[in-house]
Amino acid sequence: MTDEQKDLDRLFAAYREACPAPAPSPEFMPGIWRRIEARRRLPALVPRWAAGFVAAAATLCLLMGVYLLLPRAPEPPVDTATYLETLEGSPALETMAYMEVVSFEPPESQ
């Protein structure tokens, strides 16, 4: 045997002393299965939650669709006046002649 193998044997012996094998008892296997089932609960809940969210989203979409299909009172148009009525209500062209004309003068160069 080489020194490396002896060191490895000593390491395994120290491990066996530090961590003794559990004594088998009638409660050993049920305890193992309880731990396994406890770890399986969270991943088993994820599909349930996802299915619940999908069902809630489908219900919400259905309710919104029904709301949009419900009959409502028609909204009045923004402006009901005709083109001629609008022209009658505008200021006359004669009054526009008295308005000040805006001129644009470029700034003087410096």
Report on this structure.
This protein has helices at 3-18, 28-69, 83-89, 93-96. The mean pLDDT is 82. It contains four helices and no strands. It has a domain at 3-71. By secondary structure, the protein is mainly α. The longest helix is centred in the middle third of the chain and has 42 residues, at 28-69. Helix content is 63%, strand content 0%.
Key phrases:
single chain, 110 residues, mainly alpha
Radius of gyration: 44 Å
Order of helices and strands: HHHH
Kindly report the average pLDDT value: 82
**How far apart are the first and last residues' alpha carbons, in Å?**
102 Å
Global structural class: mainly alpha
Helix content: 55-70%
**Oligomerization state:** single chain
Q: How would a crystallographer describe the biggest sheet? A: none
- Overall, the morphology is elongated
Helix tally equals 4
Beta percentage is under 5%
Report low-confidence residues grouped into runs of 5 or more. Answer: none
Short note summarizing the structure:
This protein is mostly helical and 110 residues long.
List the topology elements.
Blueprint: H1 3-18, H2 28-69, H3 83-89, H4 93-96
